[in-house]
Design a protein that fits this description.
By secondary structure, the chain is α/β, with parallel strands linked by helices. Among the domains are: 253 residues, Rossmann fold; 57 residues, no CATH class. The chain is 53% helix and 10% strand. It has 24 helices and ten strands. Strand 5 and strand 6 form a beta hairpin. Helix 2 packs antiparallel against helix 12 and helix 16 packs parallel to helix 19. The longest helix is centred in the first third of the chain and has 22 residues. The protein is globular, with a radius of gyration of 25 Å.
């Protein structure tokens, strides 16, 4: 077992038996489950909408090179600068150079999973730059020194009491503040940083090829402030975020909000098409868009797993997954957790080191059922398992055991041999992982085939 798999197993074992953790996460997921049907009510035919969204993303990903070049051409025409980053280090170097040029001491950052992917905050801290998370959930996690727990709701695993205690410890406020009071404390702290910051960083929910625009959707307004207050705005986005047309937002924005939070539409939806123009009175003086590959072309090249790039990062599959609801987001030890994270992480990083994630699934198919763009998530998890074994990443003992199982399963004579106690002993002693947390398998003294033959003889 590699070190990543051992860490995952240790963390998930601890979390799965933590009843207080399970209570908190299930409480918050229940609120989500109660809200989503209300959001879905806005669609006359939700299945047709999801199918249309999938086809639109299929078109974008199948023509990714053309779409990205169109985006670059259109946004550079309005004064933005596009930087292509193949790796994490290239993206960090580009951001570091921009910050150095701007003599940046303070940077404000809105919620962005892709900047978590490249560990931007750690990099900036080493450069002596103060990087402030301005999304409330991300700010809470930053205060606690933790990565986001969930793609959409970073502090889902914390109760209001946990957050009040954290604010008292880290910010020195009085104990027992209400959620409203805690929000006002964070607002007071963060508003000052927008004015001080030389650089603002955002992600992008969508990149629009037709107009050369980025679309940012949020509920707090911090993304809009991070993009407009500082003189320099840096966008970091994965290349898969591209969509063909601005009219596609009328499809994707309600879909993302419904499956992400249960809202019909998020509170703030912003379209940015470059830095401040000569006829405009506000906005950043300069804008940079960093288009990040970082392993995404590995997924693109794999025709069977390619549809994982359709993901719009709503987090619905995490909320539906029985494994995630038991072990939580931090057990995965990756930026992207849950079913979608288990699919893309081995391709973004290394299959051999991360193949264990694709086995962390019951294959119940609930993730596929709730995906707004109808990605066949449980099928892709199986595909990852197959690719891992095909690459030789399984143990010799495991391969031998499955070959024996296959040979026995294809032979009626062998299947009819040694029924009952002998078969129980062989199987239960061989598959230790099964019996560690479950009762032993109990085979019938006779197979159905044998009982059927005996019945036919009697008749």
């Amino acid at each position: 077992m590699n070190s990543n798999a051992a860490t995952f197993k240790a963390k998930s074992t601890i979390r799965a038996s933590d009843m207080e953790h399970r209570r908190k996460i299930n409480f918050n997921i229940k609120k989500y489950n109660d809200a989503v049907p209300k959001g879905k009510a806005q669609f006359v035919n939700i299945m047709a909408v999801r199918e249309h969204a999938k086809n639109t993303k299929w078109n974008a990903i199948e023509h990714l090179d053309v779409m990205l070049e169109r985006f670059e051409k259109n946004i550079t025409a309005r004064g933005a600068k596009v930087i292509w980053a193949e790796t994490t280090q290239e993206a960090l170097d580009a951001i570091g150079q921009i910050c150095k040029t701007k003599n940046c001491k303070t940077l404000v950052k809105s919620k962005s999973m892709v900047t978590e992917e490249i560990h931007l905050n750690n990099y900036l801290e080493k450069q002596g730059i103060e990087s402030i998370e301005t999304d409330l959930g991300e700010y809470i996690q930053q205060l606690d020194g933790e990565p986001p727990y969930h793609i959409v709701t970073p502090a889902m695993h914390k109760s209001k009491e946990d957050i009040a205690k954290l604010f008292t410890e880290k910010l020195g406020v009085q104990e027992g503040l209400s959620p409203q009071q805690l929000t006002l404390v964070a607002r007071e702290k963060l508003r000052k940083k927008y004015v001080e910051a030389e650089v603002g960083v955002t992600g992008a929910n969508f990149l629009i090829a037709e107009t050369g625009s980025i679309s940012v959707t949020e509920n707090e307004g911090n993304g809009r402030l991070s993009a407009s207050f500082p003189k320099t705005h840096i966008v970091v986005a994965g290349i898969e975020k591209i969509i063909p047309s601005i009219t596609d937002l009328s499809l994707f924005l309600p879909l993302l909000s419904t499956f992400g939070t249960g809202q019909q539409l998020t509170v703030y939806n912003t379209i940015i098409s470059g830095p401040r123009q000569s006829n405009e009175i506000d906005g950043p003086e300069e804008m940079y868009v960093i288009l990040l590959d970082n392993g995404r072309t590995n997924i693109l090249a794999d025709t069977k797993v390619r549809e994982a790039l359709y993901c719009i990062r709503c987090g619905a599959c995490l909320n539906a997954c029985p494994v995630y609801k038991n072990i939580g987001g931090h057990s995965y030890d990756t930026t992207y957790s849950g079913p979608i994270g288990s699919i893309i992480t081995p391709h973004l990083k290394n299959m051999k080191s991360w193949n264990h994630l694709s086995y962390a699934s019951s294959l119940c198919g609930n993730c596929t059922e709730v995906c707004p763009v109808r990605i066949n998530l449980h099928v892709l998890l199986l595909e990852n398992r197959y690719e891992s074994v095909a690459e030789g990443d399984s143990a010799v003992a495991e391969r031998v055991a499955w070959k024996m199982w296959k040979a026995a399963s294809l032979s009626r004579r062998m299947m009819n041999m040694a029924n009952g106690n002998l078969k129980n002993k062989v199987v239960n002693n061989m598959f230790k992982g099964w019996t560690k947390h479950r009762a032993g398998l109990d085979f019938s003294p006779k197979t159905f085939n044998q009982m059927w033959k005996e019945r036919e003889k009697q008749n």
